[in-house]
TrEMBL record:
The keyword Metal-binding applies. The lineage of its organism: Eukaryota, Fungi, Fungi incertae sedis, Mucoromycota, Mucoromycotina. Pfam families: GBBH-like_N (PF06155), TauD (PF02668). Residues 160-400 form the TauD/TfdA-like domain. It comes from Parasitella parasitica. Pathway: Amine and polyamine biosynthesis; carnitine biosynthesis. Converts trimethyllysine (TML) into hydroxytrimethyllysine (HTML). Its EC number is 1.14.11.8. GO terms for cellular component: mitochondrion. Keywords: Carnitine biosynthesis, Dioxygenase, Iron, Metal-binding, Oxidoreductase. InterPro entries: AlphaKG_dependent_hydroxylases, GBBH-like_N, GBBH-like_N_sf, TauD-like_sf, TauD/TfdA-like, Trimethyllysine_dOase. Belongs to the gamma-BBH/TMLD family. It catalyses: N(6),N(6),N(6)-trimethyl-L-lysine + 2-oxoglutarate + O2 = (3S)-3-hydroxy-N(6),N(6),N(6)-trimethyl-L-lysine + succinate + CO2. The gene is PARPA_08376.1 scaffold 32922. This is trimethyllysine dioxygenase. Its cofactor is Fe(2+); L-ascorbate.
Length: 424
């Protein structure tokens, strides 16, 4: 049941209805703004008056969202304007009059209906409108981005995920990816100690990132097969890999297939947790590591000279929203610092010492002997890794994974196609 109020202005009839049947449907008004707007003859989107050219939705929690007319037309969700299968915009944004006004607006049980002057009818689901309310923003998190990280220290106790479950059930796979997104690290146990089984497990997660080290799965031992310290028996302090790539690998996997000797345990440190500790200990040092650009390179192999574009990046990388999203830190792969002023250089070294002290603090170090059969996978944008020096024979195989494709896989596993439609 609906009630209609008709307003006529410049010969345009506007239907305002109130949905009385659905508790989740917001009340809809547009009369005042529209009347004032048309009375002034101003160009709506440029008028700068708060309520001009907008549709108002009152939600049940007494919040009111406003949506611009142009935005609504540009975001029409009908099959002609938005491809229902490819989920891509079909409407020609640039063919929409910049000052478009609806001919009629109607609140329906399942969403907002708008009829435009050319007769085109747009529909928007209420939950889609609520999710994408931008004035004000009503969503409390960005559900597409990632799981909220849970920070950890040396005491982290994660339940290992069963290899059979990962390979044969969606639940097992989801558990693995959930841990990766939440803690930035996860262990799979019961993996056959072969390169083939490890590669199968890796590809269950995502296709692999090729690098100068390999096409896909790699394995290494202390033989300098590649000119990098990983291929020696030296200890490696906590670091992230690929600091010299424009985009470092998103994930890394290790499986220790063979070991006869002493030492060679694996080290993991939650870089997001250490960053938080640094910020608390010295906001100035934190700012220095967030702002100082560090050049890096990979140049050991004869035919390789990799540097990133841009040439240098901070250790602590923040998005435009100010969130820390990536750690890039490998003190061994840092290039010559020749671009900082004397003052900047001293500030950088001071901050680096504080960072390193926290990284090496016992309470942050998670050590694991990584017994054969126990495969570790970790977020190379968050969790730093290292190893103790070793003697004897040690062979590890593993893989790098691209960030976006790993995230996509994780997202799809925790979302329905309906979630996709609502969240995009
Ligand atoms: C993992 N794998 C053995 C293939 C290579 C190791 C490379 C470590 C290197 N310093 C870097 O940051 O890339
Ligand atoms: O040998 C190890 O355990 C790790 C070496 C390393 O840092 C790497 O391969 O990226
Ligand atoms: Fe490494």
């Amino acid at each position: 049941m609906q009630r209609y109020f008709n307003l006529t202005n410049k010969g345009l009839s506007v239907n305002i209805s109130r949905a009385l049947f659905s508790t989740s449907a917001p009340k809809l008004h547009k009369a005042n703004a529209k009347k004032r707007l048309e009375g002034t003859g101003a160009v709506p989107q440029r008028a700068g008056l708060a309520n001009d050219g907008q549709v108002f939705l009152d939600w049940n929690n007494r919040k009111t969202s406003v949506y611009s007319h142009f935005w609504l037309r540009d975001h029409c969700r009908c099959a002609e304007c938005y491809h229902p299968v490819t989920r891509q915009r079909l409407v020609d944004t640039f063919a929409i009059p910049r000052d478009i006004q609806p001919a009629a607006v109607d609140s329906r049980k399942d969403g907002l209906s708008v009829i435009w002057p050319d007769g085109h009818q747009s529909k928007y689901a209420w939950d889609w409108l609520h999710t994408h309310s931008y004035s004000p923003v009503l969503r409390t998190s960005e559900p597409l981005a990632t799981r909220k990280p849970k920070l950890w220290d040396a005491g982290l106790k994660l339940t290992p995920v069963d290899h059979e479950a990962v390979m044969n059930t969606e639940e097992g796979l989801r558990q693995w990816l959930d841990q990766l997104e939440t803690f930035g690290i996860s262990f799979v146990e019961g993996v056959p100690t072969t390169v083939e089984a490890t590669e199968k497990l890796a590809r269950r997660l995502c296709f692999l990132r090729e690098t100068h080290y390999s096409q896909g799965i790699w394995y290494f031992t202390a033989d300098l097969a590649h000119a990098d310290t990983a291929y020696t028996q030296l200890a490696l302090g906590a670091h992230t890999d690929n600091t010299y790539f424009t985009e470092p690998a998103g994930l890394q996997m290790f499986h220790k297939l063979e070991f006869e000797g002493q030492g060679g345990d694996s080290l993991f440190v939650d870089g997001f947790s250490v960053a938080k500790q640094l910020k608390e200990a010295s906001p100035a040092a934190y700012r220095t590591l967030a702002n100082t650009l560090i050049p890096t390179h990979s140049a050991g192999d004869e035919n390789v000279l990799i540097v990133p574009t841009p040439r240098a990046n901070p250790i602590l990388n923040h998005g435009p929203d100010g969130e820390l999203y990536q750690i890039r830190y490998n003190n061994d792969d840092r290039s010559t610092l020749d671009h900082l002023s004397s003052t900047q250089l001293e500030a950088f070294y001071d901050a680096l010492f504080l960072w390193s002290d926290l990284l090496k603090s016992k309470k942050n170090e998670l050590w694991d002997p990584l017994a054969p059969g126990r495969v570790v996978t970790f977020d190379n944008w968050r969790v730093l890794h290292g190893r103790s020096a070793f003697t004897g024979h040690r062979r590890i195989c593993g893989a790098y994974f691209p960030w976006d494709d790993y995230k996509s896989r994780a997202r799809v596993l925790r979302m329905t196609p309906q979630d996709k439609d609502r969240l995009l």
